[in-house]
Amino acid sequence: MAVPDYQSLMLPLLRFVGGKKDETSTGEAVEALARELNLTDEDLKEMLPSGIQLPLLIELAGPLLT
């Protein structure tokens, strides 16, 4: 499975954050999303087409967490 788009990440991320009683790190949220979405290691290494050096999932989930 490829990394879903921004809109498709919102609900799983909101479920994860809603179940937390305190703050969470971006890394913890990305790991939870990867598990829920059954992403492979290759999916997690996928980069943005522009060549930005952060993995796509982190780029998409980061703004949702701020």
Question: Could you walk me through the main structural features you see in this protein, from its secondary elements to its overall organization?
Answer:
By secondary structure, the chain is an all-alpha fold. The chain has one domain (6-65). 59% of the residues lie in helices and 0% in strands. The radius of gyration is 11 Å and the shape is globular. The protein starts with 5 loop residues before the first helix and ends with a helix. 12% of the residues are buried. The mean pLDDT is 78.
Mind sketching the topology for me?
Layout: H1 6-18, H2 26-36, H3 41-45, H4 56-65
How many structural domains does the protein architecture include?
1
How many individual β-strands?
Answer: 0
Would you tell me the overall average pLDDT? Answer: 78
Given the helix and strand composition, which structural class is it?
A: mainly alpha
Q: In what range is the share of β-strand residues?
A: under 5%
Radius of gyration: 11 Å
Tally of contiguous helical segments: 4
Which outline best applies? globular
Instruction: Give the low-pLDDT segments.
Output: none
In helices, the fraction of residues equals: 55-70%
**Main β sheet profile:** none
The secondary-structure element order is HHHH
Q: Between the first and last Cα atoms, what is the distance in angstroms?
A: 26 Å
Oligomer: single chain
